[in-house]
Amino acid sequence: MELRELLLHTIEKQASDLHLTENMPPLIRIDGRIIATSSHKLTRDDTKRLIYSVLSSDQKEKFEQDWELDLSIALPGLDRFRMNVHIQRGCVEAAFRRIPLLIPSLDELGLPRIVLELARKPNGLVLVTGPTGVGKTTTLAAMVDLINSEREDIIISIEDPIEFLHYNKKCVVKQREVFSDTKSFSDALKHALRQDPNVIMVGEMRDLETISTTLTAAETGHLVLATLHTPDAPQTIERIIDVFPPNQQHQVRLQLADCLQGVVSQLLLPRADNKGRVLATEVMIATPAIRNLIREQEIEQIPTLMQTGSQFGMHTMDKSLKKLYKDGIISIETATSKVKNPEEFKSL
Asked: How far apart are CA 298 and CA 291, in angstroms?
């Protein structure tokens, strides 16, 4: 058994992930479900051999020093994979996330039209949020691809690791990988401001320094696209503010209120017909009223404005779930497992 064969099988089956773990056969994830690819269980030696077969000597050294490693690997002419190598009970194991070769459009992903308008903003901060594995990276890639097709700009992306590959269309796209091309997100962001960018894409806002520099970049006339692991718009705003020490939070609220353009939260849900998954979204647009609530620290009132802000392109996750259920795309069980307010959802 070779790793290339397993990766080709993952592509063939249109699986999202491949897992190599001790005492289990190679596992793939299809539409959220984990499926064994064979009856042959991997030994500790098997997993290490398969994983080390694609690591350079530098990567092996780094992994043996840090016990953690993120990288991307490519099969020529085929899909790429984001790879995480880790140790579990002393065994070297890995998870591979498949990155399709072709970047889907925002329409193909099933995102609402307002997301195209957010991607076309000249400046400010646009956030894509949601749990792991719901396609945040794909949404960002589709937004960058739209800009690359329509504008004549400099786009700088900072990723860990690089996932979708962008080729220069109308724009010049510079993709920088953390640990390969730069030491950290915050370092790359600080220096990006001197590289004459129009658009900056930040793979993940992880820490105080990265969030602080991201806000500064959005304030100084750049369009900044970034992701956060938060479930909805109000919690996204609270997370950003809470990262800072209390004496800085008032200033950050003002900064965020001025530069935020919108928040798109997403979930991937199993379809009722078991034929794949469908995207459910929540969109908050930074209208003057929303900006005022952020300044005044009245975040709990944001959902009310989102419910009544459909003319601005806003909608809540519950409304998206209701529509998907009414259209017969998802089951009532799937919908009710994700709604924020089950009683209100039933009345809808």
From this structure: 10
| Contact call for residues 260 and 125 (beta carbons, < 8 A) | yes
Residue 195 contacts residue 156 (beta carbons within 8 Å): yes
Torsion region of 313: left, alpha or beta (phi above 0 gives left; psi -120 to 50 gives alpha): left
Beta-strand ranges (E) seen in 79-178 are: 80-88, 91-99, 124-129, 154-159, 172-177
For 109-155, write each residue's pLDDT tens digit: 999 999 999 999 999 999 999 998 899 999 999 999 999 999 999 99
In the chain, the domains with their CATH numbers are: 3-99 (3.30.450.90), 114-347 (3.40.50.300)
Q: Which amino acid is at 317?
A: M
- Could you give the 3-state DSSP secondary structure of residue 201? strand
Contact between residue 187 and residue 205 where contact means Cβ atoms under 8 Å apart: no
Each residue of 50-83: b (16+ CB within 10 Å) or e? bbeebbeeebeebbeeeeebebbbeeeeebbbbb
Question: Which among 6, 79, 3 has a CA at the least distance from the CA of 48?
Answer: 3
Residue 196: how many CB atoms within 10 A of its CB? 10
